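U., I forgot to send this yesterday:
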Amino acid sequence: MKKKLTLLSMVIIAITVLAGCEPLTVLDPKGPQANTLSDVIMISIWTMMIIVVAVFVLLIVMLTKYRESKQSKDYEPPHIKGNKIVETICVGIPILIVIFLSIVTVKSTYEVETVPEGYENQEPLVIYAASSNWKWHFSYPEENIETVNYVFIPTNRPIQFKIYAYGPMSSFWIPQLAGQKYGMAGMINTLNLAATYPGEYMGRNAMFTGEGFAEQTFNVKALPQDEYETWVNEIKATAKPLTKEKFNKLLEPAHLGQLTFTGTHLGFSPPPSEHHGASTPDEKSEGKNETN
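Result:
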């Protein structure tokens, strides 16, 4: 009776705790890259569930069929040689599972590292995302504006985040739009994504970088192209310019709210020249030109 009450209590506690959990945003994708990652996660989960169920079924069968029987003490079981069919299944199925998951992983990795499918013929919006303790700086060279701790992007247009860090290595992550990408001092990493639906999404630093990293979050707002252009024009008309002195002040360790400026820090504090994975002369020369 006590065991049943204990088990029932554990079930009730588990249900109560899980009921208070927030939904898994990574499984609620709002863009093609995040959709690919979500599919990979679900494929992995279903594959593991099939394996677990199969193992437990076989365990029950083995425990039931080959349990101890009432044989005499001098009973000797017959000698049985190895079964090639069983051995092939036991070795072959795990190999096939590994091959299957490897193909899925490699294919999806190439997909999320390139421009999203269907957006190859569009000019991407380039945004430089630089981290510092404990904030995010977003520079728009095309619009000549800069924001802190929030970023607006147009929907249905490819976005390229050029990620690096002023200080410790950070992890740039927008769960509903793309996977994680590290921001490092001395190197730029490129993250390609696109937002299919308008909305507000959470972004954060997913890597420990000191006592304030838990609050190093930023808001992402995806807008239709016309609303995005309206926002850009409002910033240019109302925001104050970003100076070198102001930017150096922003780099000091602190928590800040959302800030907006005209101009960017790229002119007086250029990004690193090295691009991770730069495979074309144009991309390599781009990093060199930024530092001149």
